[in-house]
């Protein structure tokens, strides 16, 4: 029996109702066989969920096949567009790495967030739209664009997985109200929005921020995403494909998952250590909302 454990800590950020108030728990499980293929037909009697070491009764195991939607948020201000070719080349390679069926949307953020191409599963259409990204003298709306992207996910009517990739900069001041930041955190956490932040620090321009760095690190950490800072646009030509490979791997795991519903232990705490025992060999990934 394959055993895998992880810890969920929710109470400190108050991002969800206390676990002790819920009679049933739910986790997402991705299981890949040693040959790299997804394991099909997982049954309830082949999965045991534990909370703080106590075995829980598995109520249901459902095969889930939801689409993934990726939002690319691109700061097209001076910091990231001088020269612009590394940005465009990196974006093209990133999109090319996405598995077929992945929906992609691109928004520019300098001046005000606006769509270059709305969500589409047509990779060539998304690649062709990159040529529409032009330099802008304004500073990137770092927080506003992140917040709007998370709200778009919140308004989705159909189930799916969401990923945000922010290509930003620390150019321009940023002021955020506490309630606005908390709303962003709630949307990212409650919907399992994996958020990767690539930040051009020490960029060009008279006014350099700083809040972007702290916000980028915190949101990436909260969501299980990756934070990277860089200096100079040439790095984007290689950094974006690196992130693309990571996103593509996550999409592959997310495309073959099980949603496991189980009866919670009455003794479980808010800081519950949740584990899984699987009667299969292979590579096991667990998550709370399905984002891998």
What's the topology here?
Layout: E1 2-7, E2 24-32, E3 47-51, E4 54-56, E5 58-64, E6 68-74, H1 85-97, E7 103-108, E8 114-120, H2 123-129, H3 142-154, E9 161-169, H4 178-190, E10 194-200, H5 211-223, E11 227-230, H6 236-254, E12 257-263, E13 273-278, E14 283-287
Parallel strand pairs: 6-7, 6-9, 9-10, 10-11
Antiparallel strand pairs: 1-13, 2-12, 2-14, 3-4, 3-13, 5-12, 7-8
Task: Walk me through the structure.
This protein is an alpha/beta fold. The protein has two domains: 2-61 and 257-287, no CATH class; 68-252, von Willebrand factor, type A domain (Rossmann fold), CATH 3.40.50.410. Helices cover 27% and strands 30% of the residues. The protein is built from six helices and 14 strands. The protein has helices at 85-97, 123-129, 142-154, 178-190, 211-223, 236-254; strands at 2-7, 24-32, 47-51, 54-56, 58-64, 68-74, 103-108, 114-120, 161-169, 194-200, 227-230, 257-263, 273-278, 283-287. It has a six-stranded mixed sheet with strand order 8-7-6-9-10-11, sandwiched between helices. It has a four-stranded antiparallel sheet with strand order 1-13-3-4, with no helix packed on it. Helix 4 links the parallel strand 9 (161-169) and strand 10 (194-200). The longest helix is centred in the last third of the chain and has 19 residues, at 236-254. It is globular and about 60 Å long.
């Amino acid at each position: 029996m394959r055993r895998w454990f992880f810890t969920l800590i929710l109470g400190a950020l108050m991002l969800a109702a206390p676990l002790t108030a819920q009679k049933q728990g739910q986790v997402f499980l991705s299981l890949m066989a040693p040959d790299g293929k997804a394991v099909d037909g997982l049954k309830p009697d082949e999965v045991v969920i534990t909370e703080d070491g106590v075995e829980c009764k598995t109520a249901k195991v459902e095969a889930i096949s939801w689409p993934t939607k990726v939002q690319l948020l691109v700061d097209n201000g001076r910091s990231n567009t001088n020269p612009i070719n590394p940005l465009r080349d990196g974006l093209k390679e990133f999109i090319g790495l996405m598995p077929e069926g992945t929906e992609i949307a691109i928004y520019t953020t300098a001046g005000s967030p606006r769509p270059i191409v709305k969500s589409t599963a047509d990779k060539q259409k998304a690649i062709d739209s990159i040529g529409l990204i032009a330099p802008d003298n304004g500073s990137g709306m770092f927080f506003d664009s992140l917040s709007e992207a998370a709200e778009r996910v919140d308004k989705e009517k159909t189930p799916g997985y969401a990923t945000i990739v922010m290509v930003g900069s620390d150019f321009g001041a940023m002021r955020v109200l506490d309630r606005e930041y908390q709303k962003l955190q709630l949307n990212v956490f409650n919907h399992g929005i994996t958020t990767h932040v690539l930040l051009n620090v020490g960029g060009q321009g008279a006014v350099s921020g700083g809040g972007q760095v702290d916000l980028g690190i915190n949101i990436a950490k909260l969501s299980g995403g990756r934070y990277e800072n860089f200096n100079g646009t040439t790095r984007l030509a290689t950094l974006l494909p690196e992130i693309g490979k990571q996103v593509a791997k996550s999409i592959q795991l997310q495309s073959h998952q099980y949603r496991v519903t189980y009866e919670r232990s009455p003794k479980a705490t808010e800081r519950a250590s949740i584990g899984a025992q699987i009667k299969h060999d292979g590579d096991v990934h667990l998550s709370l909302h399905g984002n891998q």
